[in-house]
UniProtKB/TrEMBL annotation:
The lineage of its organism: Bacteria, Pseudomonadati, Pseudomonadota, Alphaproteobacteria, Rhodobacterales. GO terms for cellular component: cytosol. SUPFAM superfamilies: Flavoproteins (SSF52218). Residues 5-148 form the NADPH-dependent FMN reductase-like domain. GO terms for molecular function: FMN binding; oxidoreductase activity. This is NAD(P)H-dependent oxidoreductase. InterPro entries: Flavoprotein-like_sf, FMN_Rdtase-like_dom, NAD(P)H-dep_reductase. It comes from the Bacteria.
Length: 184
């Protein structure tokens, strides 16, 4: 049985290396996980004054509905200044409000990231995992995912064309699928 995964990518560029990585993960997970890419670039900056009768702005309500409907959450984040980009933090804040209506609570979740540097997004993921736990997500601890992005390892269609990369992505997605199943 295929599980649905709400995917939030912390980079807004259409061809960001993290969006490419997310698409490659979706390809290797086909058949066991269905990725639903959640738009977060249209969310206003979090502002408590924007809640009206318990409802947020339309983009917030759409995002919260997509996450609520999913079986799990995958956060795909670049690393900006050794931390998580503001756009992803903003989405996490909106999804946790108003008090008592968080869409993150008890969701099986994982975080991944790619960068051109040798350590991938290790520093950002430390911050992100702490936020995930604080928000009540059930974060997958292992295996960890730190990827040095090498564009020549990807095909034009976004799939991983390098066999070692494909195996790495598949191993991670298989572990995530098992994580989701255990929590079902």
């Amino acid at each position: 049985m295929s599980r649905s995964v709400a995917v939030l990518v912390g980079s807004l560029r259409a061809q960001s290396i993290n969006r490419i990585t997310a698409r490659a993960l979706a390809r290797v997970a086909e058949g066991s996980l269905d990725f639903d890419f959640v738009e977060i670039g249209d969310l206003p900056l979090y502002n408590e004054d924007l809640w009206q009768d318990g409802r947020g702005p339309t983009p917030v309500e759409r995002m919260k509905a997509q996450v609520a409907a999913a079986d799990a959450v995958l956060l795909v984040s670049p690393e900006y200044n050794r931390a998580v980009p503001g756009v992803l933090c903003n989405a996490l804040d909106w999804g946790s409000r108003p008090s008592g209506t968080s869409v993150w609570s008890r969701k099986p979740a994982a975080c991944v990231g790619a960068s051109q540097g040798a350590i991938g997004t290790a520093a950002a993921q430390v911050h992100l995992k702490a936020r995930m736990v604080t928000l009540g997500m059930v974060a997958m601890g292992h295996p960890e995912f730190y990827l040095r992005f090498e564009p020549e390892k990807y095909a034009e269609d976004g799939s991983a064309q390098d066999e070692n990369l494909r195996k790495f992505l598949k191993t991670y997605m298989d572990a995530f699928a098992r994580h989701i199943e255990r929590l079902d």
